[in-house]
Amino acid sequence: MSKCEQCIVREFSSLKALNKDELLKIAECKTSKIIKKGETIFAEGENVNGIFCVKDGICKMTKLSPNGKDQIVKLVTKGELLGQRSMISEEPANLSAVALEDMQVCFIPKTEILGFFDKNNQFSMNVMKTICGDLKLADDHMVNMAQKSVKERLAETLIYLHETFGTNTDKTLKVQLSRDELASMIGTATESCIRLLSDFNKLGLIELVGKKIVLKDIQKLKKLAD
Amino acid sequence: MSKCEQCIVREFSSLKALNKDELLKIAECKTSKIIKKGETIFAEGENVNGIFCVKDGICKMTKLSPNGKDQIVKLVTKGELLGQRSMISEEPANLSAVALEDMQVCFIPKTEILGFFDKNNQFSMNVMKTICGDLKLADDHMVNMAQKSVKERLAETLIYLHETFGTNTDKTLKVQLSRDELASMIGTATESCIRLLSDFNKLGLIELVGKKIVLKDIQKLKKLAD
DNA sequence: CCTCAACTATGATATTTATCATATAAATGT
DNA sequence: ACATTTATATGATAAATATCATAGTTGAGG
After folding, report:
1. Which of A102, A129, A145 is the last residue of a domain?
2. Other Cβ atoms within 10 Å of B14 Cβ, number
3. How far apart are CA B136 and CA B133, in angstroms?
C-alpha cells in the first residue's frame, strides 16, 4: 500500500488541506486500482459510496441523453477527484466515468471523507470551492452549447484539449479521442464532426495525422471559436 | 427591520440550519430591498460581497454569450439564495440576476455568512448540497442543450415552467416570459421560438392567450420533450 | 498474413434552424 | 387619444446540421 503524502492527487485537489494524521488514515483505508482504457470506473445511476482520486490517466464523464446518444460532459485527469457531488448529495452518480487511457485511481470510502468535513474546515472549504468551480464551468459550457455553432464549438474544444492536456513530441494532441468521442464532446453527429475537421484541415487550421490531430494555426482557431 | 425567523427563505434554503441566535445576527445586519420588474439585482462581473435571499418574486439568471445574445441559465424564485457560488469562489458573479416580476430580497453581507461556515457544520453541508444540486441540474441542462432539438427543448421548458411555477386561475402559466426570453431560455432565435409556439398551438398542445400560454395537452408535450 | 470489425471519410439529400423582410398587435409616453 | 416604440407573428429564403449511403483505412485477433 503506497503512502498518500507524496501523491500527486494530494497536491492538486481539496485533499491538500489534510494533515499527516488524516493522510495516514486515508492511506490505511484506500483501495488502489488500475483501470484499463475503455473500462468504466463507475456508471450513471450507480451508488458510489466514496470518492476516487485520479493518480494517473484521463477519463471522460458522460451522460446518456434520452435520444440514446452519450454526451461527454467533461474530462477529468490526474490530480483530480471523482464522485464528490454524488457523495455529498447522497445520490447515485449523475455521470459515468470511463477511462480514455490506462489509469491509476484510489478509492476512499465515504465514511472517511465525511469525517473530515466535520473536523477540518479548510478541507470543507476546498471541496466547496472545487464544486463551485465545476458549477461555473458547467454554466459556461451550457451557454456555449446553446449559443455557439458546431464549428465554433469544435474550434473551442480543440483549443481546450491543446491547452489542457498538451501535445506529444510529434505535436499531435495528447488526449486521443476518436472522432465519435470528439463529436460527443461538442454535441454533434460524428459525420458532421469529421466533415468539419476535414474543412479545418483544408483551411490549414489543423493537420490530420492518421487519427491524430495537430493544431497548426491556434490564433485563427481562437478567432473561429469566438 | 423584519425578523428572519418566520421568513420563507429560512424554511426552504440552507439557512434552515441556523439557530435563533444566528438568525438574530442576520436580522441585524441584513438589508431589505424591493426590486422592480426588469431591474438588475447584480450583474455578471460584479463583486457581490454577500448573498441575496429571495423573499418574493422570480428572477432570471443570465449570461452574455460572445455572440452578444443573452442566455437564461436558470430561474430563481422565493425561498432560494442568490450569489452563493460567487461568494464561496471569491470571484465576481458569473451570471446576472434580473427580476421577472417585482421582488422582495434581503442582502446578507459575506462576513456574516462566512462566520457560519466555521461554526455551523449543518449549514455548511446544506450549502454544499444546494450547490451540488445546482451542479447536477447544470450538467443535465448542458446535455439537453447539446442533444435535444429546439422543439424538444421548448416542450420541456413549457412543462418545467408549468410544474415549477404553476398557473393563474385562467390556466395560463404564472411566470410570464416574453417570447424573446423564452427563446433565450431554450437557446434559439426569437422567430424560431414564436413559430414553434404557433405550431404547438395548431397541434392543440398549447393555447396562446395574447402573450400568455396555456398548456392544453401535457401528456403529448411530455412525449415530445422525450 | 489474412480477415473481419470498427473507424474514418465523403457524397447526396433531407431536415432543422437562422436570418431577413414585412405585417399586425399591443404597450407606452405625451 | 394619438403617435411611437416594442412585441408578436408569419412568409421567404439561406445556412447549418443530421441522416443515409457507400467506400476506403486501420487495427486486432486468429
Report:
1. A145
2. 25
3. 5
Indicate if the pLDDT at residue A1 is higher than 60: no
Q: What is the DSSP string of A12-63?
A: HSGGGG--HHHHHHHHHH-EEEEE-TT-EEE-TT----EEEEEEE-EEEEEE
Strand C proximity: list residues 47-106 of B with CB under 7 Å. none
- The CB density around residue A173, as the number of other CB atoms within 10 Å, is 20
* Strand D bases contacted by the protein (CB, 7 Å): 7-12, 16-21, 26-27
Same structural domain for residues A208 and A102? no
Band (pLDDT 50/70/90 cuts) for residue A74 is very high
Establish whether the CB of A197 is closer than 7 Å to any nucleic acid atom in strand C: yes
- B89·A136 Cβ contact <8 A: yes
Question: Which range marks the domain in which residue B19 is found?
Answer: 8-145
Query: What pLDDT, on the 0 to 100 scale, is given for residue B163?
Result: 97
pTM value? 0.94
pLDDT above 90 coverage of chain A, percent: 90
Parallel, antiparallel or unpaired: strands A58-64 and A81-82: unpaired
CATH number, position A69: 2.60.120.10
Domain boundary among B145, B167, B196: B145
The separation, in Å, between residue A211 CA and nucleotide C1 C1' comes to 24
Closest Cα in chain A, distance from residue B1 (Å) = 32
